[in-house]
Amino acid sequence: MSESIINEQDFEKFREYFYRKTGIQFEQTKRYFVDKRLEERIEATNSGSFRNYFTMLRFEASGEELQHLTNLMTVNETYFFREEYQFQCLVKSILPELTKSKRDRKPIRVWVIPSSSGEESYSIAIYLLEYWNEIDIWDIEIISSDIDTKILRMAREGVYSQRSVQHLPTKILNKYFTAKSSEYQICESLRQAVEFTRVNLSDRADTRAYRDFDVIFCRNLLIYFDDVSRKAAAETFYDAIKPGGFVCLGHSESMSRVSSLYKVRKFPEAIVYQKPLEAR
Questions:
Q1: Whole-model pTM?
Q2: Is 201 annotated as a binding residue?
Q3: Ligand-binding site membership of 76 (annotated)
Q4: Closest C-alpha among 61, 71, 66 to residue 18
């Protein structure tokens, strides 16, 4: 299939459509990446041309093809204990503050979005087990969400490459993983401990049921959004989190440039963002 099949006008139409559906915006520098994946789906669906494929994509009632395409377009590259300082912040600063003021005995709820292939969610579970001295006192719920259904299946299986686990201490690797040829599978108890769900952060209908979280990890996602989508994501998190709850972003992301809804909290380990206690 020649590169000229998807012309500049086609690319712009698709880019605007995909942005409206997912909040993800592709720059011109991503043109080759986008074209190759569109061509793959045009061929797989026997559409014959971009125009036919794009018509089918927009009007398919089930949304199945949009999900296939989204799975191809999203980037899912992470590893265990990435940006570990925030996990340290969770157990040393955030959880002690939350539990000190928590009057009910309801579980502490953590939302990880995007889930990617599960490394971040499982890292949180491992970190709590290894380093939080109140893990036997409190119940924890970890919900891990992503727009990509293929990557969620991988997360549930919990099988990882050497690269994904390379930063884990040997003691932890041996304790929670089983070696399988050149790969490692995380133990069954941790796979059962994390709930994986499909959510489009840019779709209010998708996120409406996500409420009453104490901590949200949304790291290295907002860098793919434009200002409008970042602001919408900040408002979604505001609705999803309890007063006094915390939002953790990636090291190159800042809520201060996106929304004034949150208080900036500077802990010894990390800067995070808090929904004010007086908020409703």
A1: 0.84
A2: yes
A3: yes
A4: 66
Q: Is there a binding annotation on residue 200?
A: yes
- Is 90 annotated to bind a ligand? Reply is no
Cα separation, 211 vs 207, whole angstroms: 8
Q: In 3-state terms, what secondary structure has residue 264?
A: strand
* Per-position DSSP letters for 57-70, written without gaps between them: HHH-TT-HHHHHHH
Residue 103 annotated as binding site: no
Was 188 annotated as part of a binding site? no
- Could you give the C-alpha distances from 274 to 102, 128, 257, 264, in angstroms and in order? 15, 20, 15, 6
Closest CA to 202 of 70, 29, 32: 70
Phi and psi torsions of 6, nearest 5° = -105, 100
Where residue 158 falls (left for φ over 0; alpha for ψ -120 to 50; beta otherwise) is left
Tokens of 48: 């014959």
Q: Which domains does the chain have, with CATH numbers?
A: 8-73 (no CATH), 84-275 (3.40.50.150)
Q: What is the pLDDT of residues 197-252, one digit of tens each?
A: 999 998 999 999 999 999 999 998 888 888 888 999 999 999 999 999 999 998 88
261 labeled part of a ligand binding site: no
φ/ψ of 198, rounded to 5, equals -90, 120
Place of tokens 């991503």: 30
Q: Is 46 annotated as a binding residue?
A: no
**Share above pLDDT 90 across residues of the chain, in percent, rounded to a whole number:** 71
Give me the phi and psi of 264, to 5 degrees please: -85, 125
- Whether 39 has a binding-site annotation, put simply, is no
CA within 13 Å, CB half, 105: 3
